């Protein structure tokens, strides 16, 4: 029986234990953060394979040095997916459709910002290049608001300890349907549509004095922001788009975010550390596919 080290103690860990145990894989928690470690003492627990490389790179380096194990999604995979601008550049080169996007690397003066967005139509979306869960993502409706938000970003980036001093300015796709497609070893194993309830949007609109009939209510589809994920049968073209994305990035376990409007479908982001949702939202062979990938990785 294989022993799988899982570096998160969240929902994914709880959902993995029983189905993987049924497939002769023991799931154990390998804590990477919020702990103290005596680096002069060898670890007392051994693992065969890890899932997935810790999100915090410094702690991940310690874990990886102490436990010489292969990872389902290693450090390179996590870093590749986390760099939103890098992902979009790689996908564009692979002729995979992405939103029209500008990456800004501070310090940049205002004239350069104005020139960069000259061919974009407002509203636009500003997002950090390496944050998750929709943190810091903002929609602005005109140039003055954009420059105001950028003033705050300049203050943050002026702090010497800030590691990532880049951000994206991206076209906003109104009324787009938001899909998260799960790909395991170049196979789509399920997907969800992330939706915002009308009552939720109305509540947020009223809290800031806006009419719920405008588009100024909640627009982020992140589950961590209150959206709900509904299992869906994805059309073949979206599945193909997700598989091509995983292949272009060379990542075996990947959540691919696709935005769909009446005119087109684009890959907006990827996640190499995606949360595993309820089993009924995935294909019947999801756990078999994941177990096979874990075993394949352990043999490396």
Automatic annotation (TrEMBL):
GO terms of molecular function: ATP binding; ligase activity, forming carbon-nitrogen bonds; metal ion binding; transferase activity
Keyword annotations from UniProtKB, A to Z: ATP-binding, Nucleotide-binding, Transferase
GO cellular component: cytoplasm
Stretches for region Disordered: 195-219
InterPro entries for this protein: ATP-grasp (IPR011761), ATP-grasp_RimK-type (IPR013651), ATP_grasp_subdomain_1 (IPR013815)
Domain spans labelled ATP-grasp: 88-299
Protein name: Glutathione synthase/ribosomal protein S6 modification enzyme (Glutaminyl transferase)
Species assigned in the record: Haloquadratum walsbyi J07HQW1
């Amino acid at each position: 029986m294989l022993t799988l080290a899982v570096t998160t103690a969240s929902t994914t860990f709880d959902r993995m234990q029983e189905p993987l145990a049924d497939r002769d894989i023991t799931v154990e928690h390998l804590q990477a953060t919020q702990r103290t470690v005596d680096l002069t003492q060898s670890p007392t627990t051994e693992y065969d394979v890890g899932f997935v490389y810790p999100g915090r790179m410094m702690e991940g380096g310690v874990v990886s040095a102490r436990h010489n194990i292969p990872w389902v999604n290693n450090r390179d995979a996590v870093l590749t997916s986390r760099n939103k601008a890098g992902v979009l550049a790689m996908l564009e080169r692979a002729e995979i459709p992405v939103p029209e996007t500008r990456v800004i690397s501070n310090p940049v003066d205002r004239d350069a910002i104005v020139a960069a967005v000259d061919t974009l139509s407002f509203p636009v979306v500003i997002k950090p290049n390496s944050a998750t869960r929709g943190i810091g993502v903002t929609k602005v409706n005109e140039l003055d608001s954009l420059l105001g938000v950028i003033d705050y970003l300049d203050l943050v980036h002026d702090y010497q300890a800030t590691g990532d001093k880049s951000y994206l300015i991206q076209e906003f796709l109104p009324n787009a349907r938001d899909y998260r497609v799960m790909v395991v070893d170049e196979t789509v194993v399920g997907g969800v549509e992330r939706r915002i309830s009308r009552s939720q949007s109305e509540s947020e609109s009223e809290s800031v004095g806006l009419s719920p009939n405008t588009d100024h209510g909640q627009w982020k589809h992140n589950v961590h922001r209150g959206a709900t994920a509904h299992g869906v049968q994805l059309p073949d073209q979206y599945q193909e788009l997700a598989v091509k994305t995983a292949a272009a990035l060379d990542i075996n376990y990947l959540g691919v975010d696709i935005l769909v409007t009446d005119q087109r479908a684009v890959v907006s982001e990827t996640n190499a550390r995606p949360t595993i949702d309820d089993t009924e939202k995935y294909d019947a062979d999801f756990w078999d596919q994941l177990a096979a990938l874990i075993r394949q990785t352990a043999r490396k």
